[in-house]
Design brief:
- This protein is about 65% helix and about 0% strand.
- The protein is mostly helical.
- It folds into 2 domains: about 20-170, Ferritin; about 175-379.
Length: about 375
């Protein structure tokens, strides 16, 4: 597998090389507080997955696990290059929140988790805006700029769950000055070029389908899932554009009339397919920045897949997969996975497709995803 890039390329954020210069007090405080926010969101999300059966609440928890897990990894990489240590456990104030939540059950828990999410993300948005305004280290400021839209989307969804909806807060992440992965996509290897096309198609499709879900679904869980897909896949598409050094455009998968009943099944299939593409790039890609993008995208996409499975009644993931927490999901974990897991999932998907819908999930998987079994670190 290709070695890691000297640049910080992830599925959600892409940064220039981190200058090894002394941090200002502002930048240092920001890194510490931002990591504390990540740790708290991860812990409360795990608690929510353990305590609640509510679909919308569980979806929000998975969203937090995926995004804040990815953000935590990027912050850790920045800190490592700057030679500073970040916290690894939540601070007393956040621990008190977690302890209070742990004592609640049922609807009371769901409501308190949502209101806590509103308050904590309001604090996080203010923290990141302050760093954008007053920060000095270019990489740290760029991280804040690119992450802010995700945090704003988190805040908006937490407010919806809490019964206090707001809108219009989400801004666009700016472009970075990262050198392109190659002079153009024509300079990439066949594997890398195919991956860029596949990832672009997946991102654009998820954004389009998510918009349909928001506009046409009356189910709060479907609506929330659509918002999640728009936020994450917009960030992933922006990161991919920064890596390639040019706008990432293309055609989404064929998007027809929105079918609320079939949307979860389509998402299971789509994310299974996309995960296979990301796994193949992580193992076989040649460009370090694209490999890093694929590696960091796997845990985010895994949370998407887990949530889509939960939305589809009667569908279960393979028993070898951790059903609750994939926030630390990485290449080592994939050694036990193989293509048959995805094919078995597609076969189950087929059995649930109504007769009046286009069938053939397993067949499409067979045709479109002819990648070898995952070997990764096995030698």
């Amino acid at each position: 597998m290709s070695s890691a890039s000297p640049d910080l390329a992830s599925s959600l954020v892409v940064l220039d090389e981190v200058p090894e210069t002394p941090l200002s007090a502002q930048d240092s405080a920001f890194l510490q507080q931002a990591q504390q926010a990540n740790l708290a969101e991860i812990e409360t999300a795990r608690l929510a997955l353990d305590k609640t059966p509510d679909d919308a609440t569980r979806e929000f928890a998975r969203w937090m696990l995926g995004d804040h897990g990815a953000n935590s990894a990027v912050l850790t990489s920045i800190a490592d290059r700057l030679g500073i240590s970040l916290p690894t456990t939540v601070d007393p104030a956040h621990q008190a929140e977690i302890t209070a939540l742990a004592g609640l059950e049922g609807r009371e828990f769901d409501q308190s988790y949502a209101t806590t999410g509103v308050a904590d993300h309001a604090d996080a948005v203010a923290l990141f805006q302050n760093e954008i305004q007053d920060g000095e280290n270019p990489a740290v400021v760029s991280f804040a700029e690119q992450t802010l839209p995700l945090l704003q989307a988190h805040f908006e969804q937490a407010a919806i769950l809490a019964g206090e909806p707001v809108s219009g807060l989400v801004t666009s992440a700016p472009e970075t000055n990262l050198a392109p992965a190659a002079n153009s996509t024509t300079d990439l290897s066949d594997q890398d070029r195919a991956f860029v096309a596949q990832a672009t198609e997946a991102n654009l499709s998820e954004i389009a389908e998510g918009q349909q879900a928001i506009e046409q679904s009356d189910d709060p869980a479907i609506d929330e899932y659509g918002r999640w897909m728009i936020a994450d896949h917009s960030a992933m598409n922006a990161a991919l554009s920064n890596i390639t050094g040019q706008p990432v455009t293309g055609d989404p998968r064929l998007i027809g009339q929105f079918d609320e009943a079939g949307y979860p099944l389509d998402e299971v299939l789509g994310h299974s397919r996309t995960l296979l593409h990301f796994i193949a790039e992580a193992e076989n890609g040649d460009n370090p920045a694209l490999v890093a993008y694929a590696q960091s995208g796997i845990p985010v996409l895994a949370q998407h897949l887990l949530a889509s499975v939960e939305l589809q009644s009667g569908l279960e993931l393979p028993a070898t997969w951790d059903q609750e927490d994939l926030s630390s999901f990485n290449l080592d974990d994939l050694c036990s996975f193989n293509l048959n897991d995805f094919k078995n999932l597609a076969n189950i998907c087929d059995s649930l497709v109504p007769e009046n819908r286009t069938s053939g999930c397993a067949g499409r998987m067979e045709v479109e995803h002819t990648v070898p079994p995952m070997t990764f670190l096995q030698s």
